[in-house]
Amino acid sequence: MKRNNFKLVDVQKVYGGPEGELWELVMGEQIHVGGWKSSKELADKAGVKKGMKVLDLCSALGAGLRFLVRNYDVEGFGLDGTRHMIDEAIRRTEAEGMSSRILMKLGDVTSIPWPDKAFDLVWGEDAWCYVVDKEKLVREAHRVLGKGGKIAFTDWIEGDAGLSDSEASRINAFMKFPYMESHEGYEKVLKDAGFKIEVSDDLTADFADHISLYIKMLKEQLTFDALKIIGNDMNLFSQMGGEMVFMEEMARKNKLGRCRMTAVK
Asked: ∠ at Cα 176 (145, 254), nearest 5°?
């Protein structure tokens, strides 16, 4: 269900300010659940190979592409709608000596600024939950892939048990999501765009454990660092902690989850 649509400006605020810094603090530079291990599992299931041209949609700090270039020797391209993230991705890519292997662009992931059949793989990690028109994103991904090309992504989803309107509103408001797709919904979106699904994994149990880990880190190790980012506002810190506890509860009840999917054109 598409509930609580937010404007793009909210995403700009998330990843151009303190909230983005907080997510990087607890999740690391990749800013997605499971970090390096999750990326490796996704890449292996997608069959990533040397020399592939890979487009990362909602590429954030570019860490996903740097992971793929370093570990799979691909040619990387990133597209993100947030100026701060693109600028920072370019800076970090240059610092790691990968500028000749990775090209970053600022733009709309539902109107990809590359021609038809330009890529071998379209990649995404826990980021399309911020996209309002996921159907258009997937159709665009299909367009820019060559025959036999693949789409591979992980994302936050509404769990099989389903969220009530109030539960969905609370999570979407906290996370600045326009809405979360369901696992079944993503399968339909892929099929409608012309993809043949190869992998469709439910990662909800692991997702709940990671939320628990982030809460523990913030309470027992990173409190000082987190408070510094938000101006030492203890009330805000406590409020954010309460929202994360609520999300863990929803994940344990299979109302909030995460999926991993690959599909071929």
From this structure: 80
